[in-house]
Amino acid sequence: MQSRSFLIAFLKEHNTVKYVFRVLLGILFLISATAKLVGIDAFELYLFEFGWFSLGTAYLLARLVIAAEYTLGILLIANFYPRLAFWGCLAMLAVFSLFLAGLLVAGYGDNCHCFGEWVDFNPAQSLAKNAGMLVLLLLGAGVRPFNIRFKPLWLALSVVVPLTTVLIVSPPDNWRYDSYARHDLINEPAFREAIEAGILPASIEEGGHIVCFYSLKCKFCKLSARKLMTLLERGDIEALPIVAVFGRGDVPDPTPFFVETGIEATQTLFIEPADFLRITNGAFPVILVMHGPEIVAKYNYRNLH
């Protein structure tokens, strides 16, 4: 008890020590935000897969979370509104912890993207991390604010600059659908020639199909497969038989790809790498929605919606 009382008295008398705890917590928020921003494609898809939000809302929410973490990190370190920073951090940790507790109860054990793809934390590990951050927050409580001029201006900049920067560095894909549509996603003459030559089966021009050109080693192919399955489950894309086409130079067993992404292909094809690259213009994934021989929609990862 005496040692505990001594620690409390020490912290009260030493503003610098409290500030150190604040800085440590601020750095954690900045690292968390940066990790999410670097892996934002996986983070926004993670939010979308819960089925609570539209794809556009998931894009925006992911960036708002990142910007909020940057703002809290700046406020903790700059220390000109310590009470605001305290309550903002407490609210964010509470919301995140309730979310993680819900995942834990529901039996989710996958990476919850608290540190993006840098650290693979499951919900239980993330709750423990939040508990540690809460300790840092409480140890730094009551720190005296720095005396600086134009505090409201600096506060506004601490909110606006992170949000603007995140949107500039990584604008939501739905802001750029038109520009993606102008790109040649597929070499259609090469695609038709491959069907005529028997490289691709003529059956894909009969009825309706979703033809996906994937590489087993491609991160965005895996992300697009997960996004496609979520869109199909939500009814945002017409449910049609899926034909998965891979280059023959890939790992010969596609099973891990299907298990990881959850994609359910009715037909799996392997074609020669030269044909695969010629059809896709060397860029993949490419996803075609076909009604008979007509290609009614062309997607890559970015404009798949």
Question: Could you characterize the architecture of this molecule?
Answer:
It contains twelve helices and five strands. With 305 residues, it is an alpha/beta fold. It folds into two domains: 2-174, no CATH class; 177-299, Glutaredoxin (3-Layer(aba) Sandwich), CATH 3.40.30.10. A five-stranded mixed sheet has the order 3-2-1-4-5. Helix 3 (40-49) crosses helix 4 (55-78) and helix 9 (188-196) packs across helix 12. The longest helix is centred in the N-terminal third of the chain and has 25 residues, at 82-106. The termini are far apart. The mean pLDDT is 87.
The H/E string reads HHHHHHHHHEHEHEHEE
How many structural units, i.e. domains?
Answer: 2
Alpha carbon gyration radius: 25 Å
Unreliable sequence segments? none
How would you sum up the global shape? elongated
Q: Fraction of residues in helices?
A: 55-70%
Largest sheet: 5 strands, mixed
How many strands? 5
Report, as a whole number of angstroms, the end-to-end distance: 60 Å
Percent of residues in beta strands: 5-15%
| Largest beta sheet: strand ordering | 3-2-1-4-5
The helix-and-strand class reads alpha/beta
Mean pLDDT: 87
Q: Helical element count?
A: 12
